[in-house]
Amino acid sequence: MSVLMPQLLRGLTGLTQRLPVQRVQIHSKPPWEQLRTMDVAVGLTSCFLCFLLPSGWVLSHLESYKKRE
């Protein structure tokens, strides 16, 4: 470790202490309208098709991936 390393680290930490940090106030409001049953069904179906179906297909064909050809 060089002699300049502690000075370099001290300089970098000094820069981070001087940077201004902006605080953001996030407030959530209640939804304008309630989700309908069809909205929930479409959302759950799309999540199933996008995430669970491909991973299930890969897991079901795992043995064919293990074979060397």
From TrEMBL:
Protein topology in the membrane: Single-pass membrane protein
Keyword Transmembrane applies: yes
Biological-process GO terms, alphabetical: mitochondrial electron transport, cytochrome c to oxygen
Alphabetically ordered keywords of this record: Membrane, Mitochondrion, Mitochondrion inner membrane, Transit peptide, Transmembrane, Transmembrane helix, Ubl conjugation
One protein family per Pfam: COX8
Quaternary data: Component of the cytochrome c oxidase (complex IV, CIV), a multisubunit enzyme composed of 14 subunits. The complex is composed of a catalytic core of 3 subunits MT-CO1, MT-CO2 and MT-CO3, encoded in the mitochondrial DNA, and 11 supernumerary subunits COX4I, COX5A, COX5B, COX6A, COX6B, COX6C, COX7A, COX7B, COX7C, COX8 and NDUFA4, which are encoded in the nuclear genome.
Function of the molecule: Component of the cytochrome c oxidase, the last enzyme in the mitochondrial electron transport chain which drives oxidative phosphorylation. The respiratory chain contains 3 multisubunit complexes succinate dehydrogenase (complex II, CII), ubiquinol-cytochrome c oxidoreductase (cytochrome b-c1 complex, complex III, CIII) and cytochrome c oxidase (complex IV, CIV), that cooperate to transfer electrons derived from NADH and succinate to molecular oxygen, creating an electrochemical gradient over the inner membrane that drives transmembrane transport and the ATP synthase.
Official protein name in the record: Cytochrome c oxidase subunit 8
Natural source organism: Canis lupus dingo (dingo)
Taxonomic lineage: Eukaryota, Metazoa, Chordata, Craniata, Vertebrata
